[in-house]
Structures are given as structure tokens and as C-alpha cells.
Amino acid sequence: MENNNMEAYKAESGNMEACRAEGGNMEACRAEGGKAEGNVPRDGMRRNAPYFLGMALIYSVCFATAFYRNYIGITFPLITAATLLVCWLFLKKNEIPWKKSNWLYIVTCMLLGITTVLTANVFVIFFNTVGILLMITVFMMRQMYDDTGWNFGQYLLNVLFLYLNMIPELAAPFIHWVNYRKGHKREGKKNQKVKYILLGVVIGLPMLFVVVELLSSADQIFSQVIGKMSHRLFGQVIFSPNVFLVILLMVLGFFGIYSFLSALSLNNMPQYQSGGTKKNPLTAITFISMVTVVYVIFCGIQILFLFTGGMLLPEAYTYAEYAHQGFFQLLFVCLFNLVLVGVSMAVFDVNRVLKLLLLLCCGCTYIMLASSAFRMILYIRTYHLSFLRVLVLWFLAMLAVLLAGVAVTVVNRKFKLFRYCVAVVAVSYLVFSFGKPDVLVAEYNIAQMGEDISFDDLEYLAGLSVDTVPALSRYRFEHQGCGQGAGNYVKKYDYYTSPGDWFYGEREGKVPDGCRRCLLNKTLHHVLKDTEHMGVRTFHLSKYLARRAAVEYWN
């Protein structure tokens, strides 16, 4: 049995090598030997089950070490690098040639991992993680498949298809190991002994636990000597919440990476027919013309009355009210136009008239984007910056660049829109993430309001993330409206001299309404308290800078 499997494997590997030697014509290889539509045999992971299982086990230990009670520490970029290393080992083991164009995805992943250590904003950290997962997915799909014929929609469907394939592949580690053992039935006596010993341990542990419990209740001396030791072993070690968390993280890391690689090795990605029959463009010309007429009228009004007409507004409207009322509607219309243009090119046969209409639609969308940005700037002038407003301005700028790619695709159907969109989104998001939006909001608002900042505005800035602490620590407020009831609270923070003087009472007290000094003191006190046990593994640059600013504030 073993010899037959090895001969088949050598023959199959030989076919692959011959195929690569003939210029990389993989279609011929797929037609021979029962290959799937990719570069790796369907049973490639089964043949190398010990290698991949061992690699996944080592990765699971690294995963647990990185994320054990620590999701944004210095270990985040390290586990990102470890994930990329596992992917590289997978490709190398399966002799899949490296595509130089994939360096964009590798660099983006590492930069996203690094920026996670530079900010404590939960929104940014979450999308950093999502971005890393998507970048790794697209990177591996491009390594495994020929994506030259995929359009934007097919790419999205294939990514979703791969993730759905990961669900049944959760059982792949067990199946691969069983199949591998069936192909290698000859086992040494040493392996047999180890198997029997492990079976005996599994059976003996529950028996040992029951016997110790019974004897501990029967004799006090035995209970004091052995029973307490047993309780500590089972209660504080084996069944400890910390041990459970470590095991859970290892399980997530092991099955996550193995099911991902196993789903890739299935090579069952759907194949799409190119050059299919498209619909008559007259239908698209009709409904796009109707919508575009409205767009042209709307854009004319924006140009005449808002941009060049001295910012004329309807009666009884302030700039802030006018900006807030129309912004989100315009943003939705811009997104709708992007989808409209993309669907029209994918479904209908594009002719010259339809191209002109689609380009006109893109032009109107640019004017709407400008109107949306202009309205948001008016709103910011009145109510200053917030994280959401910075996010919206960034999103509008990114949409403008994406729309340029859509316009190019209208003219040139061979333009690689998906790759363009990936590059634009990756670069734009890296700028947003490295820009530390919370710091931008705090610095702008402090520069605009200075010492006149209100209690509510200060409370908003303090509630963003610890990224804002270095900027807030420059304030030196006096106590206002504290009253006698807040005396203990004020004293607790005013007489702070060193980290050892923190207050650990049962009740911390409530910040008196309107007292900016108490609010700021409480914020900086919490920063010191939350970063007290930050070590090498949990080091985070933003938290470190916040802690240093808080110490300087108190000193």
C-alpha cells in the first residue's frame, strides 16, 4: 500500500515538474492525474500531514503567546510575521513559485501590524486586523490561482467562497492524520508503546481524581497532605481560567491556520466563463439617462448657489444645519453611483453612448463628493472635529480616488479594477491608521478652543483613546464647582506624588459636573493604573507615551 502511494506521488510530482519545465502551462497538468484547477494536488496536505500538523501546532503556541490577555501589544506585528512565514512555508513545501507582484500584500500586512502598536483606537485596531486577514487571503489566492480573468465581482465571490470552504475544513487535521496513518501502517514497537501509555493516562486521570476526593473525605491527615495539593492542581492549574484561555487561543490558532491552508489546497475555486452574452445597452442607456438628468440639475444648483454663489442657503438654515441635513444623503448617492456604473459595465454591452453616459455619471458623482466634503467642512467649522468627521472626510477622499479607477474602466475594459481598488484602499487606510485620527482630533480642537474648552468637549476627547493623553496633559485647569462633597475626590488626585499613592478604595467617586480639573485628573489617574503592569510582551507605544505624559503631568 505504501509503495503504491509513493509511486503515485512521484509520478504526480514528475508531471508537475515536467509541466513547469515546459513554460508553466498548468492547464495540461490539471488535465492529467486528476489534478484540481490549481497548482497543488488535492491530497498534498494529506501526504505531508505530519509536517503541516506540526507547523500548525507550533503556530498555535505562538498565537496563544501573542494574544494571551494582550491583543494590541508588541506581539501583534510578530504574530502577523509568523502567519506570513507559515504561508511561505506552505508555498515552499508545495513548490509553488513566488509572484513578485505580491510584495504589496506582504508589506501592507506588516505595516498594518506595526500601526496597531502605535494607536489604541479600537476602531482602527479592529480594521487593522480585518485588513491583515483580507490581505493574506488575497495574497494566497493570487499565489494559488491564475486571477488574470477575474473581474471585481468574481474576486469578491471567490474570497467568500474560500472562507465558506474553511468551515468543513475544520475537520481536515483529523482526516489528514487518519489518512496518513492508513498509508503508513507499519509502526515500530516504540510508537505502539507510546500509544498505549497515552491511553492509560487518559483513562487513569478521572479515576485518580475520584479516588483522591474519596480518600480526602475519609481521612483528615490525608486530606491536609494530598487533598490540598490535589485541589490546587485541579482548581488552580488544570481547570484554571487562565489555562482555559491559553487552550482556547491555541485551538483557534491551530484550526484557523490549518483550515485556511486546507481550503486553499482544495483547488476548487469556481471557474467563470469569459465573454458571455451581455444585455442590450439600450435598457441601460434609458434608465441611466433618466437618473443623469436629475444629477446634472442637482450639480448645477451646487455650482451656482453653494460653490460660486457666496454659499447661499435656504431661509432659516444655518451652515451647520444645512451641512448636517444633506451630507449623508449625498454620501449614499455617491456609493449608489459607484455600484450603478460597475453593474452597468458588467451586465450590459457597452457602446459609445453608454460610455458617455457613464462618464457623465462619474463626473456628477465627483461634484456630489465635493458638495459632501464642503458641507462637512462647514459643519466642522461650527462644531469642530470628531473621530466620525475625520473618518468621513477620509472616506470621501478615498471614494474620489476609487471613482477615478471606475472611470478608467469605462474607457478601457482591460483595466485591472480589483487590483487598483486593493492598492487604493490599502494605501489610503495605512495613511488613516498611521495618521492617528484621535490625536488629530485632540490637537485640532485644543488649538481651536484652547483654555475655553467646555467640560463636554473635554469629556469627549478624554473618552476617545489614550492616544489623546499627551495632548490633554498640557492643560492646567483650576477646580471649579467641586463643592465640599467632592473634597476627598479632589484631595485624592491633587496629592498624588508617585505611582504608589494610587487610591484603591471601594468607591472612586464621581467627577463633579463642570469641573475640568477633576475630569482630567481622573483620566490621567486611570492611564497610570491601566498601564502599571505593562511589560515586554504587552508593550504598546501609545500606552507608553500616555503613561509618560501622565507621570509628567502629576510631577
Characterization of the model:
The protein is mainly alpha-helical and 555 residues long. Helices cover 72% and strands 0% of the residues. Helix 6 (103-118) packs antiparallel against helix 7, helix 14 (319-347) packs parallel to helix 16 (387-411) and helix 21 crosses helix 22. The radius of gyration is 31 Å and the shape is flat. Residues 1-38 and 484-508 have low confidence and may be disordered.
Write the layout of secondary structure elements.
Layout: H1 2-21, H2 26-31, H3 44-47, H4 49-67, H5 75-93, H6 103-118, H7 122-144, H8 152-166, H9 172-183, H10 189-218, H11 220-238, H12 241-265, H13 281-307, H14 319-347, H15 352-383, H16 387-411, H17 417-434, H18 437-449, H19 455-462, H20 469-472, H21 487-494, H22 516-530, H23 541-554
How would you briefly describe this protein structure?
With 555 residues, the chain is mainly α.
What share of the residues does DSSP label as strand, in percent?
A: under 5%
N-to-C span: 76 Å
Q: Return the string of H and E elements.
A: HHHHHHHHHHHHHHHHHHHHHHH
What is the arithmetic mean of pLDDT? Answer: 78
Q: Count every helix, treating DSSP H or I runs of 4 or more residues as helices.
A: 23
The largest sheet, given as strand count, sense and whether it forms a barrel, is:
none
Q: State the shape.
A: flat
